[in-house]
Amino acid sequence: MPQRAEQTEVAPPSVGAELVGAGTAPAEVSVARRSTDRPRSEGKLFTLGLQCIPPIVFIAAWQMLAMTHSVSGDILPRPMDVVHRFGTIIVRSETRTAIRQTLSAWLVGLALAFVVGVLLGAVLGGSTAFYRYARFTVDFLRSVPAIALIPLALLFFGTTFKMKIALIFFAAVWAVLIQMIHAVWDIDPMNLEVARSYRLNRRRRFLWITLPSVAPHVATGLRLASTLALLMCVASELLGGAPGLGYLLFRTQQGGPPADPYVYGLIVAVLALIVDTVFRLVERRVLKWHPEHRMVEA
Amino acid sequence: MATLNVSRPSTLQRVRSTARFIASLWLPVIIILGWYQVSKGSTSIVNPSLSNIMKVFCDDWLPGPHSLLRSQLLPTVANLLAGLLIAIVVGLVFGVIVGSSRLLLIALRPSLELARACPAVVFFPMVFIFFGLSAWGKVTIVAYAVFWPVLLNTIAGVRSVDPLVRDMARSYRLSRRQTIFNVVLRSASPQIMAGIRVATAVAVTMAVASEYYASDHGVGYYVFNSQQVFAARDTWSGTILLGLLGYLLSLLSRGAEHIVLRWHTNMRHAMSDGSQAH
After folding, report:
1. What is the C-alpha end-to-end distance of chain A, expressed in Å?
2. Cα-based distances in Å from B245 to A252, B70, B93
3. Residue A129 · residue A191 · CB < 8 Å
4. How far apart are CA A259 and CA A262, in angstroms?
5. Contact by Cβ (8 Å): A117, A173
6. For the whole model, what pTM was predicted?
7. What gap in Å lies between CA A14 and CA B79, rounded to an integer?
8. What is the rounded CA–CA span in Å between residue A114 and residue A177?
9. 3-class DSSP state for residue A200?
10. Cβ-Cβ contacts under 8 Å, A272 against chain B
11. Could you give the CA distance from residue A140 to residue B249 in angstroms, rounded to a whole number?
């Protein structure tokens, strides 16, 4: 796959330079060519420098905007204000409690969605009849926006931990369920037959055939679910008023320094980024054997 | 096109798939009947009887004298579609630009990953400080959230264009415009349509959520407000409406995907038939 990507990157500019000529930006072409000559030696530093440009431009533009609109200075804080407030807010015990509340609800809801999604997915994936019966219902419920259920959840549970769990569960369970159904479909029956003819017992068949074949799909489902769960968790706090980071974010609109919403937004964003990165790594780890396995087969 | 249409379903297949669809309906029917039976004559505040909910639903959300379709549903759907449309156009344009340039892609990739991972709900307070209760705030939120799946899928689609096809377009001296519309966008369309399908689901969520956060009209406002005053029947009927809206839009986006990609699936069928013949 990387080899193919390399080709895509290299081939067009050189051809384009000859045929289209003045039509393409010359600087672009020449840089691309140079990088084909020496593929990896200067690459790292160059790439890093290039990647620093967008954030710098973004922050500079923000600073300019905040300075020129001096009248609305209380609406748009300067980047440095946000950094200052970040320093004071992050050390508060209130913030740490909120982070703990958010993460614990996220974890419980995600775990619940994972267990139910995997079990139900195994049942629906394993039985054609069950799948047929449930397909429409699953399809419908899956397309119901989970955020729309906040008022109903508030009606039943109030602004509690339970409400958050219920909403997170509903938001996250479908991703796991759908992936699990496809995972079960993807188990090669031939492998199971072979395992059976070698008289591997149930436990070994599960460990050596079923689990490795199912794990990549489930890891993907878990990654999608983890992001959805965090989004739902913060949304239920922000819109529903349950305690947590989202609630602190909500409270900023009742006054206080204009930098505060940006600070809480930043904390949530960092959490989201950590969650996303961790689950991506898990997925890559679980997937690692997969292409190799495929190559051996082919 | 007609010659490619090899895989037209036979009557038998059609009957079979209809039977399957009917078989898939009995679970929801049982759930609804069960709900109806259990909630019959319910006096609970949070859990009113289904017949009451349906009565409110018919009054509010079906065309009639007291219908709220125009006053509440229309603004929500308008915000949703406006945000979706803006994001699709902007996402496509940026996606084609970034996807076609190696340098831009290298420079932007970490920033894009960072921005994409950040949940859109955290921007609610900032956006509403700028726009207040006006529709622009909601359209902005929908457009922002929808932008990412469209952009990233377009980039992925443009990157995956077969280099041979690109070279072919060049050697035929297709103009830049022709190349983009007839070659790049077309061969990227499976990914783009997948992005738009995801985007539609996100758009519904964000349109409703933005109304929960700050609004004085719209379905989201109606549902949220009814919960605040413990009008449970309204909450239920509004939530059912939102569920139906979500389902309808997901059907529509899947239908659009089907239509746009018809050439793709047909080609695949034609090709697989060809390989079987060998």
Report:
1. 16
2. 32, 15, 28
3. no
4. 5
5. yes
6. 0.81
7. 45
8. 8
9. coil
10. 117-119
11. 11
Residue of B nearest to A273 (CA): B117
Contacts of B34 in chain A (CB under 8 A): none
CA-to-CA separations, B109 to A282, B106, B114, in angstroms, rounded: 21, 6, 9
What integer pLDDT is reported at residue A1 of this predicted model? 33
Q: What are the structure tokens assigned to B92, written together?
A: 């496509």
Tell me: the pLDDT tens digits for B89-116?
Answer: 999 999 999 998 888 888 898 888 888 8
Task: Tell me the pLDDT tens digit for each residue of A64-123.
Answer: 888 876 545 567 888 888 899 898 888 899 999 999 999 999 999 999 999 999 999 999
Q: Which two tokens stand for residue A109?
A: 């809801």
Percent of chain B at pLDDT > 90 equals: 27
Q: B139 to chain A nearest CA, in Å?
A: 17
Tokens standing for residue B206: 């964000």
Query: Distance from B246 to chain A by nearest Cα, in Å?
Result: 5
Compute the distance between CA of residue A234 and CA of residue B213 in angstroms, rounded to an integer. Answer: 13
Place of tokens 């290298």: B106
Distant-in-sequence, close-in-space partners of A106: CB < 8 Å, separation ≥ 6 = A168, A226, A229, A230, A233, A275
Q: Say if the ipTM goes beyond 0.85.
A: no
Q: Is A122 exposed, middle or buried (0-12, 13-18, 19+ CB in 10 A)?
A: middle
- Taking alpha carbons only, the member of A213, A216, A225 closest to residue A283 is A216
B172/B174 Cα distance (integer angstroms): 6
C-alpha to C-alpha distance for B15 and B20, rounded to whole angstroms? 9
Predicted pLDDT of residue A17: 31
Q: Give the tokens for residue B203.
A: 């758009």
**What phi and psi, each to the nearest 5 degrees, are found at residue B176?**
-60, -40
The continuous run of DSSP H or E covering B76 comes out as helix B74-100
Q: How far apart are CA A171 and CA A231, in angstroms?
A: 9
Weakest mean pLDDT among A47-51, B10-14, B72-76:
B10-14
- Asked if the model's pLDDT at residue A294 lies above 70, the reply is no
Distance CA B223, CA A239 (A): 13
Q: How far is A182 from chain B (nearest CA, A)?
A: 18
The model's pLDDT over A200-252, given as tens digits with 9 standing for 90+, comes to 888 888 888 888 888 888 998 999 999 999 999 999 999 988 899 999 998 88
* CB crowding A254-290: b at 16 or more within 10 Å, else e: eeebbbbbbbbbbbbbebbeebbeebbeebeebeeee
Answer positive or negative: Cα dihedral of B159, B165, B171, B177: negative
Residue with tokens 């995600």: A110
Residue with token string 């047909």: B266
Residue B199 has pLDDT above 70, yes or no: yes
| Residue A5: closest CA among B92, B99, B90, B39 | B99
Which DSSP string do the residues of A58-75 spell out, in sequence order? HHHHHHHHHHH--TTTTT
The structure tokens listed for A220 are 């993907």
Interface contacts A/B by beta carbons within 8 Å: 176
Q: Which of B117, B173, B250 sits opposite A143 (nearest CB)?
A: B250
CA distances from B220 to A278, A292, B72, B245 (A): 34, 49, 9, 12
Q: How many whole angstroms separate alpha carbon B210 and alpha carbon B224? A: 11
